[in-house]
Prior knowledge:
By secondary structure, this protein is α/β, with parallel strands linked by helices. It has helices spanning 49-61, 77-85, 117-131, 148-164, 177-184, 203-212, 264-274, 281-292, 305-317, 322-332, and strands spanning 24-26, 66-68, 94-99, 101-104, 109-113, 138-141, 170-173, 189-195, 215-219, 253-254, 258-259, 296-298.
Amino acid sequence: xxxxxxxxxxxxxxxxxxxxxxxxxxxxxxxxxxxxxxxxxxxxxxxxxxxxxxxxxxxxxxxxxxxxxxxxxxxxxxxxxxxxxxxxxxxxxxxxxxxxxxxxxxxxxxxxxxxxxxxxxxxxxxxxxxxxxxxxxxxxxxxxxxxxxxxxxxxxxxxxxxxxxxxxxxxxxxxxxxxxxxxxxxxxxxxxxxxxxxxxxxxxxxxxxxxxxxxxxxxxxxxxxxxxxxxxxxxxxxxxxxxxxxxxxxxxxxxxxxxxxxxxxxxxxxxxxxxxxxxxxxxxxxxxxxxxxxxxxxxxxxxxxxxxxxxxxxxxxxxxxxxxxxxxxxxxx
Length: 333
């Protein structure tokens, strides 16, 4: 554990010294609709930018400092909305973004990738412009399957960006401990972003964070909405929502965005434990991650002020206690 007792909410971004807190917000959903060139949705459906801005500012008021986005979310739109929301409050926030995917802002499509150091620089400068800032606090490689030799070049490019003052630290979004360890060899690598939630643990990635002094930034902490309790088993996802035609990796949902017949019963099995002590289901799922490791910073998505308030409300409940953690493990065994 990185922190104990009354200090459990404190988190430092690896070796950077940047304080981020125990909870961050993921900004994929606020990017709105975008797709592959053939029209397959990659976003979470339509959004209201005014509501997104209000939700980000409400999160700041509630003590959430860490905001994670990517240049490709909404084909640049998520970064623009986040930058607008942080105008005049930039120093209150820690901003993370990602690079590596190619996209067309006008068509709002993603197509291909570029793993070259030259593109990393172009992507960084473009993100700075969209975010309206002079530095990125955490710059993350978004291509989890990048070969080791290429990743080593990108790690050195990131060290150069740190030296120039364009970024403060960097990380890799990958679920492969060996790849993450390669990036961790860099002086200013501060974190690894990886998937983890109460339904699917990530012991190898969490162990690497403990060993290398990296923060684990947790994506999919609520299993893409399955752990919020908001997905009606009989209701199909709207057009424009990636869950309506889920790719293979999005295995928590079946075609149409219906919760998977495999995973939905497992949620029900642990619902009572996760909602103990006045928590909502989502708050219990976040509490499980904090109970799992003191180096985790889950980044649940949000689109409304109400969602921001519910997610931030998990901080008042804190980590699940050892007895609850053991009960969850028994029920899912």
